[in-house]
Specification:
heterodimer, A: 115 residues, mainly beta, 4-stranded antiparallel sheet, 11 strands, 0% helix, B: 113 residues, Immunoglobulin-like, 6-stranded mixed sheet
Amino acid sequence: NAGVTQTPKFQVLKTGQSMTLQCAQDMNHEYMSWYRQDPGMGLRLIHYSVGAGITDQGEVPNGYNVSRSTTEDFPLRLLSAAPSQTSVYFCASRWTGGSHNSPLHFGNGTRLTVT
Amino acid sequence: SQQGEEDPQALSIQEGENATMNCSYKTSINNLQWYRQNSGRGLVHLILIRSNEREKHSGRLRVTLDTSKKSSSLLITASRAADTASYFCATDTGGTSYGKLTFGQGTILTVHP
């Protein structure tokens, strides 16, 4: 049981380049989400999904796309990277069967630098 | 905007002392959760307290919740150097925000041996 796995761990992009941050979980969690963490800003929600085929925007969705074709995977796409997207990105999932009272399980993050 | 605001932003104590961190929030919640983050790692869940609970314990951790004041506190007793980390509160407002957690900015705790 690997939990939440994020790849890559580190990435450097040039402005305008595109890339996909991968996230996979093996806990059969319906809910998955992406956060970005910036100094002094805490974690801010980018996009989330409550199940396969369903996605929705969080607090800071601009510049990012997501899709959820399977329960296990929730990739985050940067279509045209900008320096403002330099951040640490965390994927997290949670079990939502029955109630809201369950914790988030986090991956170890992807540190992205856009030059 | 951030739902949770944490205080203090940084806390430095000696091993063996107690550490108290506070979290205030703005809207009604379904539950409030505390997480820990070691440097360079993902967040790890510590404890969840439901809106109808006032206090919860887990090992050396004690969490209180005052819904009338919209505030929570996390107490770590008999701290150890290994407790050095950032601590975040997160609120779940339930309803149409099903599953979403909103995080505070965190408290950086340093425990000196």
